[in-house]
Amino acid sequence: MYSVEFTDSAIKELKKIDKSIAKVIKNWIVKNLVDTIDPRIHGKALTGNLKGIWRYRVGDYRLFAEIDDKVLKIFLFEVAHRREIYKKK
CATH number, domain at 27? Predict the structure, then answer.
């Protein structure tokens, strides 16, 4: 079973988002990623210069994560609106 860890930047970005949207995102993470057997069923592997990163879609927001199968952890490092998240990379 996988656990989820947030980077400091992801926590900072979540705090900037409207509280109701942040709550929806947190609930989605708890429901779909925490203690999951396979975190890949809810996400999509990115390609190109973002290869190795997994994207999760929660409404108009995107979560970028790296999955470490050796320690069964999902590292969420980016949370942003869909029109902004790809500009950062």
Answer: 3.30.2310.20
